């Protein structure tokens, strides 16, 4: 095989490898754009107190809600909306099922940390909506 034929074969192989690398890099970039961020499951502001209380009862039957009971770090503000947010988020974090952040339409996912003072809401990872 002549020298220039060997160089052509090497060039073709190099070009093919560069194209494959380019495709792989592009796929990695696409994956990175779907990077997960910290999220929390909270009660929606328009939810009815009766529905929220039902959600609290359900969530607290499956996770530890002592922090929203008397003497708990997350009792204040002492209202159903706040307690539902804490209970819903605790349930989702323990069960590891962000897709369940619905609670009959009374909950939604946020990327804004709802923690206040000594009351710390644990987060989970999710892909933010665009």
TrEMBL record:
GO terms for cellular component: plasmodesma. Residues 1-28 form the signal peptide. Gene3D superfamilies: 1.20.58.1040. Keywords: Signal. Pfam families: X8. The keyword Signal applies. Residues 39-121 form the X8 domain. InterPro entries: X8, X8_dom_prot. This is X8 domain-containing protein.
């Amino acid at each position: 095989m002549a020298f220039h034929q060997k160089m052509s074969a090497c060039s073709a192989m190099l070009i093919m490898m560069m194209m494959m690398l380019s495709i792989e890099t592009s796929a990695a970039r696409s994956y990175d754009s779907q990077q997960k961020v910290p999220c929390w499951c909270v009660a929606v502001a328009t939810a009815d107190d009766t529905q929220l209380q039902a959600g609290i009862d359900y969530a607290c039957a499956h996770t530890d809600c002592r922090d929203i009971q008397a003497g708990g770090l997350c009792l204040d503000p002492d209202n159903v909306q706040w307690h539902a947010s804490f209970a819903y988020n605790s349930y989702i974090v323990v069960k590891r099922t962000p897709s369940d952040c619905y609670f009959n339409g009374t909950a939604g996912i946020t990327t804004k940390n709802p923690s206040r003072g000594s009351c710390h809401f644990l987060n989970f990872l999710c892909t933010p909506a665009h």
